[in-house]
Amino acid sequence: MGEMESLEKSHTEPLIRTPSQLLTIVLLSFFIPVVVILLVVKAITGGITVTPNALTETSVKARLAPVGRIKLSGTGVMEKTELGFSADNDQQDGNIEEKSGEVVYNEVCISCHLSGIAGAPKTNDKVAWAPRISKGNDTLYKNAINGIGLMPAKGGGASFSDNEIKAAVDYMILTLQ
């Protein structure tokens, strides 16, 4: 029976006997999961390394530098220079070549006028164009350049000159004949 009494006593005694044991268990229950999470993050990311010169002006500019250049039709390319960016416009050399009405039509106008989107008169629809043509070329040019109804100014081709838009209008009128 002595053995039985010792078993009962061992099962009824609490695991935490002193306040310092309680404090130790509370702290470990907080720090152990935090350490495990940090180790998992480090294993996944390979650690976070920062070079000593990461915040220098040169490093920051290199990280923020554009990855490419964009050239819009009828405009120049922005070139990177020592002082920032400067326009490498064809206009600076006076070598701008205006596009023909057919080219402008195929680049911009065709998207709406071929299918009649948003009420645009179809390119070869003489009946739809007749009331517009009767108002005269100046009205047609003005509407094409400034926009009318749902049509934006210059049909959305803001980089085209007024003369190029007029040529596109003339081209559409010629296709009706």
Span from first to last CA?
120 Å
Radius of gyration: 38 Å
Structural class: mainly alpha
Helix content: 40-55%
Low-pLDDT sequence parts: 88-93
Provide the residue-averaged pLDDT: 79
Order of helices and strands: HHHEEHHHHH
Biggest sheet: strands side by side, in what order?
1-2
How much strand content do the residues show? 5-15%
Number of helices: 8
Q: Outline the biggest β-sheet.
A: 2 strands, antiparallel
The count of DSSP E runs of length 2 or more, i.e. the number of strands, is 2
Lay out the secondary structure:
Layout: H1 2-12, H2 19-45, H3 57-64, E1 77-81, E2 84-88, H4 90-93, H5 101-113, H6 126-133, H7 137-146, H8 162-175
Antiparallel strand pairs: 1-2
Helix pairs in contact: 5-8, 7-8
Mind explaining what this structure looks like?
- There is one protein chain.
- This protein has 8 helices and 2 strands, in the order αααββααααα.
- The protein has helices spanning 2-12, 19-45, 57-64, 90-93, 101-113, 126-133, 137-146, 162-175, and strands spanning 77-81, 84-88.
- The chain starts with a helix and ends with a helix.
- Residues 88-93 have low confidence and may be disordered.
